[in-house]
Amino acid sequence: MYGKYKLRDLNISVRGLRIWSEFEDFYRYRRVLENSEIEKIISKDSEIIINPIEPVNLPKGITNYLFIDFEKPIVIEPDSTTEVFTTFPIEIGVFVCKDETLEDIDIFSFVKPKYALYGDPKGGKIARYWKTRFFGKIPQLDPLEMGVMKLRIYNLTNSWCEVSKAVFDVYGMKIYYNEKLVSSIAEMKIHSKKVAETNFIDEPLFKGMEKAVELYVARKIPIMSLKMTMEWGI
């Protein structure tokens, strides 16, 4: 389903989702998913891009943080690097495109969003909440619902450290996709048993994967920092 389309040719039906276009004086983009329905009038036939985006926009944008809570923690040996796989939820963005100019016209998801507080009530962060687990190899996932995250964990301390959660600033998230897989690569650098720094790496999991349009780039939102300091526990 992900990819580029001409608006006039748009006609997608998958798992209760329907996306199509109509023409009457103007082109109309239409989408129905469960109880959600949207219609947008587009002045001219244009290129449409549908791809996975940063999963913090539904039901409305209240945060730019993603809080991944692991079912079982992993203990990392001192002064070492460990590479694991985990998952993240997917939201799907629809963009109208002319030359290099993009505009998002729709965002939807097959996954119902949850939010939680990371940290204390005064200084903590509201974040998109996602419960998942660690994997030793790439898991088989539904690419319309979940993506694979390769996470490199650097324990920079001389102590054993337990990791039970990871929080990311998705302004820096880089997502790649193909027909079978959605992926992102991230790092966690542990500075103490309670503090770590996370960031994303701009590279695909496999060669030939398409880089997704970044919603914050399309909206031309100025980015101050691409890293997240986890200061309320790891």
From TrEMBL:
InterPro entries: DUF432. It comes from Archaeoglobus fulgidus. It comes from the Archaea. This is DUF432 domain-containing protein.
